[in-house]
Prior knowledge:
Helix content is about 50%, strand content about 10%. By secondary structure, the chain is of the alpha/beta class.
Amino acid sequence: MAxxxxxxxxxxxxxxxxLRDFYRREFLECIxxxxxxxxxxxxxxxxxPFGLIAEASLLKEQHEVERMFRLQSTGLPASNVQNIIFIxxxxxxxxxxxxxxxxxxxxxxGQSRKEFYLLFVPRKSLLCEKKLKEAGxxxxxxxxxxxxLGLIPFDSDLLSMEMDESYRECYxxxxxxxMFFAAQSLMTLQALYGTIPYIYGKGDCAKQVVEMxxxxxxxxxxxxxxxxxxxxxxxILDRSVDLLTPLLYQLTYEGLIDEVFNIKNTNVKxxxxxxxxxxxxKNSKEEALTEPKxxxxxxxxxxxAELRDKNFNAVGTIVSRKAKTITAEFDERHAAKTVGEMKxxxxxxxxxxxxxxxxxxxxxxxxxxxxxxxxxxxxxxLRCQQELIHGIDTDKVNPYIxxxxxxxxxLSSVLRLICIQSICNDGLKPKVLEYYKREIIQTYGxxxxxxxxxxxxxxxLRPHSNKTYQVIRKTLxxxxxxVNEQNPNDIAYVYSGYAPLSVRLAQYLARPGWRSITEVxxxxxxxxxEEVQQIPMGLxxxxxxxxxxxxxxxxxxxxxxxxxxxxxxxxxxxxxxLAQQDDGGTDYVxxxxxxxxGQRLINSxxxxxxxxxxxxx
Length: 617
């Protein structure tokens, strides 16, 4: 992988292909239990994650999967397969859809009898099974199984469970099921990569996960994976420890793509007009001009690997430099005089053409992003965010927020700014909070009272309390003036002057250790956790010898940072930046319950209430 952006993707450190292969093998074993031709009926929320572990071509060519359908209430299209396998998350709303599909299939009849199977991901649910029994369709299934899909490899240093609602479930609904799945996925990881010797955590959910890990280990009855540990440290961070970071605009290339267009399972859908040639525009039908263009964003694309973690202000320079390099390499064909030189150029041609295509794509994406970042609305909102994190006038009603409400700007954007102000002021003064609430209800409607209540319950909005933010900000140097966006020397470049608190905690843990910031850790919400897991003697000796040989080669220790409640692309970029530092001494792999933006986090806490239409008669 070319470029500094890919310099420390931990391909040599932790081969995540082992995890991908493990899940693929388990999944294929599940569906191969059905003998004969198959149709898979997918819950929409699972197609993306499964696409990252088992390609559709593999299922069709080697596992008798003839058709794939979306799970929808309109029923299933006609097919002549022997087996229909429903693959779904354990959500009650989906059970009604499955029931209606089964009823319509059985009323169709037909000559060939079909077998129905149900596969829950990641676990069966008694409530869901009860719902299917009540609908009278549970007996139609030849079998009901579960497939425990945990952390899905998104890239060579990034894993996600794709549980978008985990923060809401834990902090609003007191449902900690996703924490159980997180602990379970860590057990799977240790079975494949060896026991992790040192575990650190901060926050209530982190403590829960560590306790579950301890219990699960005891249930194994002393069985240890006979693998020399490949991960040195595990750091579990609860999102509630740092609510400010995800609310701010991410200012890295990948972070902004996610903010503006939403990246889902490494895929992004973009407006097509920038990606069509004049010829294509002429010949394309109307639908093709409005159909979004889908792109995969991962480090397999060399240019994206170089750009993804850069501050957006540095992207233009890299793209223009790359364009000159590619043009110069294409011009080499004019200098090729001998047959050998021509052959050499022809062998480079596929790579050059791929590089030129990639350059055209990323130039267009950067133009789309620039249209947003140059807009008055974006710049004004960013300016407001920067003032708030610097602690400017956070104790009074903010004029920009007030204007945004009056202009009826999108509610999520307004709530995002109010929550930033609340966190930076250690809570809002009662009269300020009441003013904002009143203005929102009068402008956007009374139904948003529940959303405001949700934000209070989940820690985003709160009444003013002790001043801790300023102490934390100064002690951990969260604000870095005059940050160099082109050639950064601090993680603060990812937010143009603000260092993510979560990543600062990871940085301090690596060096000089958390003891140096005990006072700050006590100010942050939730308990601190430290746990040592014993490594069998034989593996420990091997580990010691590996470590000593590593240190002589200058290799680094590996820390897995697990975010409970979501992580932003900018935080991932900051951890990659730390791994690239010569004096860092630590490589990082990032895991999370999901990848988030401020918008998605706020939206997950919003409540949609439809007004009841009363019949006057």
